[in-house]
User: Fold these one by one.
Assistant:
Number 1:
Amino acid sequence: MNTCHFFAIAAVLPLLASAAVHPVFESGPVQTPPNPPTTPSEQIDQFVFDQLAERNLQPANLCSDAVFLRRAHLCVIGTLPTEQETRAFLDATDPDRRSRLIDELLKRDEFADYWSMKWGDLLRVKAEFPIKLWPNAVQAYHRWIHTSLRDNKPIHDFVRQMLVGNGSNFREGEVNFYRAMQDRSPRGIAATVALTFMGERAEKWPTKKLDAMAGFFAQVNFKPTAEWKEEIVYFDPMADKEALWRGAMFPDGTPGDLKLGLQDPRVVFADWLLRPENPWFSRNIANRAWSWLMGRGIVHEPDDNRPDNPPSNPELLAFLEKEFAASRCDMKHLFRIILNSQTFQLSSIPAQDSEEAAVHFAHYPLRRMEAEVLIDALNQLTRTQESYSSPIPEPFSFIPENIRAISLADGSITSSFLELFGKPPRDTGYESERGRNVSDAQRLHLLNSTHVHKKVAVSPLVEAAHDGESTPEEIADKVYHTVLSRPPTPDEVNALKTHAAEDYAGARELAADLVWALINEPEFFFIH
Amino acid sequence: MNSSSITLRRDLHRSTTSFGGVPVSRREALRRCVYGSAGVLLMEPLGIHAADETPLTGKAKSVIQIWLWGGPCHIDTFDPKPDAGKDYCGALDAPIETNVSGIRIGQLLPELAKQADKYSLIRSMTHGNNGHETASYLVQTGRPSDREVFPSVGAVTSYFKGYDNGYEGLIPPYIVLTEPQGRFSEAGFLGPRFKPFATGGDPADSVFAVEGIVAPGVSEERQRKRRSLLGGLNTLGGALPGNATLKTVAHSEEQAYEMILGDSGKLFDLSLEDEKVRDAYGRNTFGQSCLMARRLVEKGVPYITINYKGWDTHKQHFQIMNRKLPELDQGLAMLLQDLSDHGLLDSTIVWCTGEFGRTPKVQLESPWNGGRHHFGAVFSSLIAGGGFKGGQVVGSSNATGEEVKDRPVYPADMIASIYGQLGIPAEATLPHPMGTVAHVVPDEKEGVPSAGKLTEIL
C-alpha cells in the first residue's frame, strides 16, 4: 500500500503541468497510476496516459464530483440524477464515493431499461408496417433482451441464444434476431451477424468471404403457424439455400467441416465465434462498451473493424478484450473497470483542443444526450409526461402515459420530439443511425416550443417558488441542483439577481425563466 | 421566365452516399462530416461529382395543396348533376355558369365561378378506395398501400427542392397549415427529415402561434430578457472557449432567434397584411391559411399543405355544405386572384382535392337523414397555376356522377403531372433504406393503374 502511495506521489509531477483547475467542472490534476498498476482501472489509465506522454499530449484535469455524478448517471442508466441524489452525493466525503456510486448505478432498474434501448438499436427491435415484425413479436424480443441485461447474462450466452435460437417468434424472443433483419437470405444473415457481433461491414469483404460465412446460415428456415403473423424460426437439415452450405468457412479462413444433417451449422458457427480466444467477438464488444461510455471507440466507428482502420490504442483494446473474456463476458465488469478509471473521469476541458487529443482520450468529449434520455430528463425535472404512438396497425401497442422513453420497447413507437432529436429508425443496426448533432430546429424547439414552455410552466420548481417569499438565492440553489446537478456559482446567482432586478413579476416567473434558461444551456443537454 | 431551376441527380442511388449503410443525402453527409468525428473517412467516398448533376427546369416553383380532409362531394362542388334529380342533388340542384363558357360549378361557389379561367377541373379522378387513410395514402403517393410506406408528394418535393438542392433559410421546405394529416401521408421511408413542419396555432387568431416561433403568453420583451439571461449564464461555454461543437450550438441558437425575434419570424405575422386583403380571404382559419400560404410562396417555400378538415359528412351533409362551401369559395378564389395579382400563379401549382368524393345519391334513411358516404369510384380535383392551363375540364363522370364516363385520371397520373411541372422526372429515384429502386412515380412493373399524364392541360 505504502509503495503504491509513494509511486503515486512521485509520479504526479510530470502530469501536474495541466491548466488551472476549473472550479465548477474540475477537481484537480490526474494522478499517475502506480507502476505496476494494481487494478484494471489503473491499467487502463496507464495505457492511455503512456500513449499521451509519447505524443506529448497532456490529459485534462479530473472532473468534479458534480460532473462525475451527472456523467455517470447519464452514461450508465440514461437518467438524470434527482435533486436529492445530487445533494447526497455532493455532501459525501468518503474517498470511495465515486466507485460506490458506480456500483449503485450498475444495480439500478434503469440500467436494464437504458441498455435494452442501446441493444435495441443494434438488434433492430422495431415493428414494421405491414408485416416484417409484428408488435407482439417485438415485445417478446425486447422482453428477452431486457431480462438478459437485468440478470447480467454473460454476453457470449446472450449472443449464442440469438444465433442458435429455434421456435416461435411470439414465444422465444431471441429468435426475432433472424426475423428483424432486412435481408433474410444466408448472405444477408451473415452480413448482419458480421456487423452486429464482429463489428465488421461485410459489404467491404470479398464476395467469397461472405459466401463462405453464409454457408453457416443456409439451413435457417421460417414457417408460419395457424396464429396470425406468428412465425417459427428453425434449423432445417434438408435446406441448402443457394447451395452455400458445402462451402461454409469461418471468416478467419478455417473450413467449416459441416456434417450434413447431423448438426445445426449455426451452432458450429457460434462455437467458433464465442470461443474465448476468438478476438473478433470480445474485441468488438470491448470496443463498443468503451465507445458507449467514452463517446468514441478505440476503433472508430465501433462497428467498422477492418485492417485499414486500426485501433488508436492497440494495447488498451487488447487489455479490455482480455479482461472481458477472463470475466466470462461480464458486461458490468467491463463497465465497472472503465467507469472507475481516471480516463473516464477526465474533464471535458481539454489541455489541448486537437483532433489527436480526442482520438487518444486526453479529455472527455461533449455528446448531446440521446433523444430518449433528453425527453426523460425534461419530464423528470418538470414532472410531466409524454404521449408516444406507433404507426403500426392493429393490434395497437398499449403505451402507458408514465412510461419513460428509454423503456420504449418498440422502435416504431415514437413522438415528434424523439424524431427531431435523432432517435434512430432501427433499419440497419449501425451505431451511426442515432443522431446526436444539434440542429437549428432542435434549438428552436427547446427555446420556444409550446411543448417546452408548458413543461416549464407546470414544473414543481416553479410551483415551489413563492412570490414575495423566495429569494433569487433560494431559487437558484434548487433549480441548479435539479437541472444541472450542481450548486450555482456566485456569478450565476448574481446574474439571476440582475435579471430579477429588471422588474420581473415575481419569484415564480423568475424560477420559470431560470428553469427555461438552464435547460437551454449546453451544460444541460450535453453529456460532458 | 417563370421556370425555376432545380438540380436533379440523375442517379440518386449512386450519388446518395451511404452513411453507415443509411442512405443520406450529400448535404446531410457533409453536415455530418462537420459535426461527426468520421469526417476524414467520409470525405473520399462522398466526392463531389458535378458531372452527375444536371440542372432541370420546371415551370412551377411551389405547390399549394388544399387538402379537403374527409372527402368533399364532387356533385355539390365541381361536377354538378342537376338533371340527376333531388335524390342526388338535394337542394343543391342549380349550378352556376362560370367565366368560361360551358363550365358550370356548384351554386355555393360563386367566387370560384369568376376565376374558372385560372383553373382546370378533373372530373374523372378515380381509385375505388373508400377508406380515409388508405385513400389519402393513394391520392398523396399514387400507390396503393402495400409493404412499403412511400413518401407523400410534399415529402418528395421537399426532397428534390428542399435543403439538398439549394433551398435555404429556416422556414422548412414542407409546411402544413396547421395540423399534420397523419399517418401514411407524410415522409414514409424518406424519414423524419422530410416530414412536414406543422405550424399549429390558428392563423385567424389575433396572434398566429406557430409552434416554436411564436409562443403565446411569452411576450417579446420577456423573450429578450430570457435571451439575455441565457447569454449571461453560459458557464460551460465560458470554460470551453473556441469549442467547435459549442460554436455550432451558438450558431443554431442565433438562427433560432432570427425566427423568434428577427425578421424571418415576421413572415407568420398576418397583422402585417392589409386589413382589406385579410377580409377578402375570409376571417376564418381556412381563409387566413390561404393568405399564409401566399406569403410562404413569396418566400420560396416549395410545398405548402392547407389541411382543411370537416368534409366527412355522413350526417347533416347539406347543413355543413351551406357553411363550408362559402368559406372554401371565398378563400380559394381570393388565393387564385391574389397569386395572379402578385405574378405568382404561373409558378405556383394550386391543387385542391380530397381523398375521395361522396356518394352522389343522398343517404336519406336513418340514421344518416341526408348524408353522403365515402366514394372512391369518382371524384373531382381542381388544379391551377404552375404551368397548368386554366378554363379546362378533363374527363367526365356519368349522368349521376357514380361512374367515370371517359378519360379516367388516377392519382399516379395527377402526381406525375405535378412532378413534371416541378421539373422532377417520373423516372427519378428516391433513396430507399433497403436499397430497393423506388421511382417517384410508380413504374409499369408495379402494376399501378395509370392513364397517363394530364397532357390535355399541360
Number 2:
Amino acid sequence: MRDFWNRFSQHKGAVLGLVFLTIVVTIAFVTPALFPVSPWKMVQRPFLPPFTIDRFPLGTDALGRDVLAGLAYGAQVSLLIGLISTAAALLIGIPIGLVAGYFGGRTDDVMMRFTEFFQTVPSFALAIVLVAIFQPSIKSIIAAIGIVSWPPVARLVRGEVLSLRSREYVEAAILSGQTHFTIITRQILPNTLSPIIVLASLMVATAILLESSLSFMGLGDPNLMSWGYMIGAARTVIRQAWWLSFFPGIAILLTVLALNLIGEGLNDALNPRLSRRVK
Amino acid sequence: MSQPVLSVEQLYITLPPGADRPYAVDNVSFDLLAGEILCIVGESGSGKSMSAHAMMGLLPEGVEPSGGTIRYAGLDLLKLTDPQLRKLRGQRIGMIFQEPMAALNPLMRVEDQIAEVFEAHGLLTASERRARAVKLLEEVGIPDPPKAAKAFPFQMSGGQRQRVVIAMALALQPEILIADEPTTALDVTTQAQILKLIRDIQKKRGMAVMFITHDFGVVAEIADRVAVMQSGRIVEAGTAQAILTAPQHDYTRKLLAAIPSLATSAARATATTAPLLQVDGLFKTFRTSQGMIRKTERVVHAIDDVSLTLHEGETLGVVGESGSGKSTLGRCLVRLIEPDAGTVRLAGTDMSHLKGEALRAARKTIQMIFQDPYASLNPRASVGRIISEGPIAHGVPKREALAKAAELLTLVGLDASAIRRYPHEFSGGQRQRIGIARALALEPRVIIADEAVSALDVSIQAQVLDLLADLKRRLNLSLVFITHDLRVAATICDRIAVMQKGKLVEIGDTHEIFTRPKMAYTRLLLDAIPGREMEQAAVVKAS
Amino acid sequence: MLRFILARLGKAAGILLAIVALNFLLIHAAPGDPAAVMAGESGATDEKFIAQLRAQFGLDRSLPEQLAIYMKGVATLDLGYSYRQQMPVADLIFQRLPATLLLTMSAFVISLLLGTLAGVLASARVGTVADSIISTLALIFYATPLFWVALMAVILFSVTLDWLPGFGYETVGAGYTGLRRALDIAAHLVLPATTLGLFFMAVYMRMTRASMLEVSRLDFVKTARAKGLAPRTILWRHTFRNAMLPVVTLAGLQAGQLVGGAVLTETVFAWPGIGRLMFEALQQRDYNLLLGIFFVSAAMVLLFNLITDIAYRVVDPRIRAS
C-alpha cells in the first residue's frame, strides 16, 4: 500500500488532481449546509457582475440566481452522474469482456460484433437520441451515458483476458483442475484490475463531459442545476454576461483535468516499469 | 604480434542510481586484433555487451562512461562527438544485434535498408546502392538475392533476417565487426550456419571480430581469444584453447563445469519397467484462414502421426528445433490443446477423450513444469496459494494442502517460510523450483517438463537439473522432458525422441542416439551442436 | 484490396441495417403513440397528418411488417417527413450535409497535422521545457469541454478582438463569388474547425509522443544508428513511420467522436450543418428528423472508418500481405 502511494505521489499533477477532486467532493457534500437556498431561487437583481457584492462573489444570472450556489449544486450533479454512469458502464462491459476473452470462439465473435456496433455508432449522437426519446431525467441520462460508454471497457477487458488466458500460470491453473469460474475470478480478474481502475477514472471524466454537453443542449434533467445547463442558459446573453459561461466552464475543465491527472497517477502507480537489467 | 586495431583501456561505465551495482563495466581492458575473433563470455547481467555499446556510442540513457579510453585509429572513441562517431558507424565499425526481427524496420524493404548504409555515408547513386545490396545478399548466402531484396522482413525466416543484418553491417567493409549475441535467438542448425558464415567472412576480409555470447559451445566453435566477464569485471582472459582446457579462475571453472556434457554412458538403465504413458497416432493441424472473402488457408501440421511410450520411472526427452511440434505435443498430452486424432493412454485410461468432470478429476495424474519463470506464477498469489490451489481444487482441506506445500518447498530446496511470500521476491531459478513444487503437489504419475530450464542462466540451469535428477531418483518420477538443447537432453534423459516438422524422426536410448544416430536429420542436429568437436576431441584425448 | 473494400462495405451495410432497426425500436419504445412520436411535437396536433402517417407506415399492422416497411423506406432514402420544416427529412439532411463534411474534414486535418507534429516535437525534446509545455497544453485541451471553449473562442476572437467571424458559414448578403467567396467561407471556418479539432489535437499529440518514445527504444532504431544514419533521417524514416501506425488506427476510432462534436460546434457557431439541424430537431421535438440525422451520421462514421482502414493497409505491408 505504501509502495502504491509512493509511486502515485511521484506524479505531482496527480497529487494536485487528487487534492482538487477532494475539494469538489467535499463541496458536493456540504452544499446543502453552505447553500441552504435553492439555486433556482432569485436572490438578487439579474446580471449582477462578479466581485461586486461579497455575498454573491460570482454574480447572478439572467433570472437573478446565485452563480456560486449553482456551481456548488452542479458539483453534486456532475459527480453523481459521473460515478453512477461509469459504474453502469463497468457493470455491462466487464462481464462481456471477460466472457468474450475467456471462452473465445463463437461466443467471442458474437460479443465482439455487438461491441463493434456500439463503438461505430457516434456515441454523442446516440446519447442525444436516447435521452430525447425517453425524455430527459437523471435516470435516462445515466442510462444513456452508460450505454454509450461500455464498449471501451469490454474491449480493454477482452484484450487483457486474451493475453492472460495463454499465460503459463493460467494454464497451470487449468491443469490443476480448477473450475472456469475459479480461474476467471481468482487468476484472471485480479490481474486485469489495474488497467480497469485507470480506465474507470478516465471514464468518470468523460461521463462528466458527456453530461455537461447534454445539459448544454437542453437535455439535462429539468429539476437539476448542472454546470452544462448554466452554460447553455447563458448562451444568448454571452455578450453582456460573459461570466455566466466562464465560471461553470472552468469548473468542468478543472474537475475533468483533475480526474485525468489522477488517472495518469494511477497508471504510474499500478503499472511500474520493469527495471532495466544490465546485459 | 600485430598491432591492436582497437584498444579498450581501463574502461568504467556507470549505471544510473538505484541499479544493483554502481558500474556496468568495472576497469575493463582488452584489445581487438585484425584477423582474429575475440569472444566476450558471461552470464546475463555481466556487462558483456556494454563496452561494445560504448564503442559505438550507443549506450542507453543513464548509462555513461566515466573513465578509461577506447583507442581506435589514433582517436579516443569516448571523447568523440555524435557527428564524429556517425562517420565511423557502419563504415569502420559494424554492429549486429541479437533479435533479427527487431533489428530490421518492418516497414522497409530489405534492399532499402541495406542501401541506407551507403546513403548514410554519401556513397554511390541510388541504383548503384540497390545493385550492391543484391551483391551483399548473395555474399551472405541468401537464396534468390534479387527477389529477397524486394522482400519485407516479415516475409523471411529468422536465419535469413540475421544474414540481412550481417549484410548491412558488412556493406562498407568495416575493419571491426561487433556481434552482440547474434545467434542466441536462432535454432541450433541455423546457428551453426551463421557461425560458419561469420567465420568465413572474417577470414576473407581479415576483420577484427568481437563476439559477445553466453554460450561456451559457441566459444569453442569460433573463438581465437576469450575474455570471461562477471559483474562488470574481466575475471580471466587468454587464448580459447587455454581457457577451455585449463581455466584458472574459479568462476570460469564453475561456468565450464555447469555446461551439460555430451558424454553419455551406455550403462543408463534401458526400459525394463512397465509402460506408463502410451501415445498412439497423435495428429494436430493448425489452420489459419486469411483474407476476408476468399479464404486462403495456411495449414501447419504441428503433430503428424506421432506414437511413443513412456515407461515408469523413465525420463523421455523430446528434442527438436522451433516448429518441430515438441511443445504442441506436450500441450496435447495434458489436453491444454485438443489433438485432432489419436489416443493418449495413461496407466490404461484413455485421457484423450475425457470430458467435463471426468477430465478435471483425471488432470491430477499428469502435470506440467513451464518454461518462463516470470510468467508461470500468478504475481498476485502467495507461493503457498500457488502450490496448494491444485490439491484444494481436488478436495484436500486447506490446512492440509498448505502443510504439504511447506514440505514440498523444503524438498525443492527452498525455505518453508516462502509460503507467505510472493513470486516477485524470488529469482528465476527459485521460481522454477516453485513451479516444480506446484507440479509435484498433486502427486502426478507423469510430469511434462516443457523447456523447463531453457530460460535460465547456465549455472542456475545446472542446479535445477541436479534438483530434477535428485527428485527423479527419490520419487521415482516419470518425466517427459521437452527441450531444444541437446546437451540438457544428454544429461537428464534415458531415451530421446527427435522431432522435425511434426514428425517423429527417431527414438531410442540416449547413448545410441548420440553415438550411432540412424537418421540424417538426427546427425545434422548433432553436428550443429556448437563446441561438439572440441569436446569430442577432449574426450578422445582423455580416454 | 478490392476484396477487402467489398467485404468492409458489406459489413458497413450490416451495421446500418442494425441502426435502422434500432431507430425503429426507439420509436416504438418511446413513451406515447408511435405515430405521435414520428409526427413530432408540432405535427402531433394535426389529425390529418397523423392519420397519413399511420397509413404510410402501416401502424395498425404487425410489428415485423412495420419493420419491413420502415426498412424499405430507408433503403429508398425516404427518411420520413419533418412536419415543422415542411420538407422530407432526406432533403433537409442532404442540403446541410456538405457544410458538416467541410467542418469535420477540416477539423480532422488540422488536428492530425498539428497534433502529430507537436507529438514528434515533444518526443524529440522529451524532458525539456518544450515537452512540458506541449504536454501540459495537450492535457488542458483534452479536459476542456468543447462547447465551452467554442463559446470562449467566440467571445475572445470574434466579439472582443474582432479578428474572425464567429457565426455562420459566410457573410450574409455580401454576394461574394469564386475565390473571394472561398476565402470568406474559409475565414468563417477557422474558429469552428479549430475548436472542434482541439480535443483531437490533444489526443493525437499524446498518442504520437508515446508511440514515438516507445518505437525509439526498439532494436531497429539502434541498428539505424549503428549504420551511421543522421538523427533526422532516423527520426522520420524509421521512428515516425512505425510510430504512426497506432495513431492511424486511433484516428479511425475517433471518427464517431468527431461527428458527435460537430453537433456542439455547429450549435455554438451557427454553422449550417446537420449538427445544427440536430439541435433544432431537439428543440422542436422533431423525432423523425432526429433519427434521420442519427442514421446519416452513423453512415458518415462508417465511411470514415473504411478510409482509415484502407490507409492503414496501404501503410503497413504486413497487413496487406494477409
